[in-house]
Amino acid sequence: MTKREEMEQLKALEDRIAKVKATLEPPKAAQDHHSMAQIGWRMVIELVSGLGIGAAMGYGLDVLFGTLPIFLVLLTLLGFAAGVKTMMRSAREFETGTDRAAPAQTGAKQGDKTSGG
Question: Region annotation Disordered: residue ranges (predicted)?
């Protein structure tokens, strides 16, 4: 078998693989208002959970040490800041399209025609 015949066979094999991959790729889901509502609720839950955890920890420390309003106020504010930070990180993820639920791509980018070797 000559080098040219091998190259032609490899090209034919690459074309067949590309056709099979095209049929196996799942269709891209169209975003509807329900998915946007899920994003909104996730952000609200992140903010409220930060507030709640901070307030609970602050109240617990205040009861433990007998200084009722000090830790409650401080840790509630810290919880709010943590909730806002987490909410902004989620917004940035959705803005760039890298949701945590989506699997991370490894290797070459899609559409990259170069081979690994």
Answer: 94-117
Q: Please list the alpha-helical segments (H only) found in the chain.
A: 3-24, 33-65, 68-96
Q: What is the pLDDT of residue 37?
A: 85
Domain boundaries, the chain: 47-95
| Alpha-carbon 70 to chain mean position | 36
Give the pair of three-digit tokens for residue 109: 């980018």
Residue range 32-67, pLDDT digits in tens? 666 788 888 999 999 999 999 999 999 999 999 999
pLDDT surpassing 50 at residue 117: no
Cα(87)–Cα(75) distance, rounded to whole angstroms? 18
Q: How far is CA 47 from the centre of its chain?
A: 17
Could you tell me if 55 and 76 are in contact, meaning their C-beta atoms sit under 8 angstroms apart? yes
